[in-house]
Amino acid sequence: MENTEIAKIFYEIGDLLEVKGGDRFRIRSYRNAGLVIEGLTESLRRLYDEGGEDALKGIPKIGESIRAKIVELITTGRCQYLEDLLKEFPSGMLDVLKVSGIGPKKAALLYKELGIESVEALQKAASQHKVRGLSGFGELSEQKILKAISELKAVSARFKLSVALKYAESITDYIKRVEGTIDVMPAGSLRRWKDTIGDVDILVTCNDSAKVMDRFINYPDVKEVLSKGETKSTVVLKIGLQVDIRTLDKKSFGAALQYFTGSKSHNVALRDRAKRMGLKISEYGVFREKGEKWLAGTKEEDVYGNVGLPWIPPELRENRGEIEAAEEGRLPQLLGLSDIRGDLHVHTKESDGTYSLEDMVEAAQKKGYEYVAITNHSKAVGVAHGLDEKRVLEEFKAIDTVNAQLRKKGDKFRVLKGTEVDIRADGSLDHPEELLSKFECVVAAVHSSFKMSSADMTKRIIRAVSSNKVHILAHPTGRLIGSREPYEVDMEKVMDEAKRCGVSLELNSYPERLDLNDVHCRLAREKGVPVAISTDAHSIHHYDNIVYGIHNARRGWLEKKDILNARPLCELLKFLKKS
Ligand code: DGT
Ligand code: CA
Ligand code: CA
């Protein structure tokens, strides 16, 4: 069992305790545990496998009783406490809680008054106008419920990249342990680093296909085996994620990898091209159309080579002009991990982070960075323990001290004084102008009043962008993958204004954000707006999320020159200088 699923179980416990009207402190401690576990980059299962229960002891906000449940989940795949709780409720209750706008209190009322115990029952009751009679519900809430249910059905069909990736890695390790296995490789949307994943596709070359299939269907997190064949099987994991596995001949591994990496529309375009050349591409190789002569297929590169193209990085394979670009030698020199020189959006425990300034600086240095901007929240973001002017000035002093110590050691690493200032509903910023001028790196973001017309939201954001105080616009569309749609905003207009004002747009690397998305990254590149790939780290472990940001940027065709934090410190400082 992987972290995501463990976290999910603690959230579920929190929700069920709340439906029951349980103790607030206890409810919160389960939810906090879920949050912490979701944020960890190390697999709890792996920690436990290597060091036993002791290895789990240093994790913040995880007390003894929750730790015992983690061990129970890892070792048995079950949680007795949750199972006991669930006995008190109908089985569809947890799903009802996932409908946006239906909290534990409303769910309890719907159950008591209308006997609603599943999403289907709720959908039926709302469309038959039975919900509006309950206290706290009206005609409008019925419409909202119906809309939320259709959204929920659409998003729950796909998984976040980070979740699918963890399972794919774990299954890959697991399959590799079969004797005689040569290659195990995830393909499909996962290899293209798409932000959401429909199902995981794993390709294997081996000497004993039967053994691989046997082991695969016995992977501990399998809920259901949909099919088991000699060279292909499909299972559904306990979290609902479907995984396909195929074993292949070594001879055609490259062709199969190309085929199953997709995307489908990239493959269709590539095949059309082959056809025009008198060739045929299939999952087994490249053939001369007449005579079926096999030309290539062992290496993926040769599949492209035989149709006169250089190898195309998987992130670009969406049929968005990559085949033409490859043909004309204009494929982008995609950005890599080693191009990143610093992180420009980082929190400490002064606002809502979990580590001190010193810890966050040290961890950034360990990543090999040259600089980091500490960007705690402004005071409006109440939940995040935002900083007022007095606390900002104290933080400045602390940063000066850290920088002085670094200089004393002859270390060129630099900590920048930053803020994540809230963009209020009217587009004004949540720190006084005078104070804003004192920050070296001002990151601005929308955190509330998401439901505005596109015209109003665009105006609001443009006001902030053109304030002459802002350097970077953070998570520009506000989406949370799987739980919140992006707000309505005209990104073309925002980018035009950002270009005019010399403002950078953030690509937030949090796996649930990836905001800017790939298409917007491409647009920023076309418009010449520099992109800052930041992690929004709230913990030392979050710096590693940069990987998601980088691959998302690659999907948007971004190169080193397009990235603000790929610039060396002196260049960055020039950019950050405002009149
Ligand atoms: P997903 O799973 O929805 O996130 O997206 P993919 O791209 O992983 O799609 P999937 O799992 O249905 O299929 C994996 C790859 O197999 C896909 O990217 C391309 C290839 N493929 C599947 N069906 C077809 C097809 O009908 N024609 C062609 N040319 N390729 C296909
Ligand atoms: Ca897939
Ligand atoms: Ca598939």
Provide key terms for this protein:
579 residues; 17 strands; 4 domains; 24 helices; binds calcium ion; DNA polymerase, domain 1; five-stranded mixed beta sheet; 44% helix; alpha/beta; Beta Polymerase, domain 3
What value does the average pLDDT take?
A: 93
Bound molecules: 2'-deoxyguanosine-5'-triphosphate, calcium ion
SS strand fraction: 5-15%
Query: Taking strands numbered 1, 2, ... along the chain, how are they ordered across the largest sheet?
Result: 11-12-13-14-15-16-17
Broad CATH class of the largest domain: Alpha Beta
Helical amount among residues, as a percent range? Answer: 40-55%
Largest sheet: 7 strands, parallel
Q: What's the number of extended β-strand segments?
A: 17
**General shape:** globular
Count up the helices. Answer: 24
The number of domains is 4
Radius of gyration: 26 Å
The CATH homologous superfamily of the largest domain is named: Metal-dependent hydrolases
- Say what the CATH topology of the largest domain is: TIM Barrel
Which structural category fits the helices and strands?
Answer: alpha/beta
Low-confidence stretches: none
**CATH architecture descriptor text of the largest domain:** Alpha-Beta Barrel
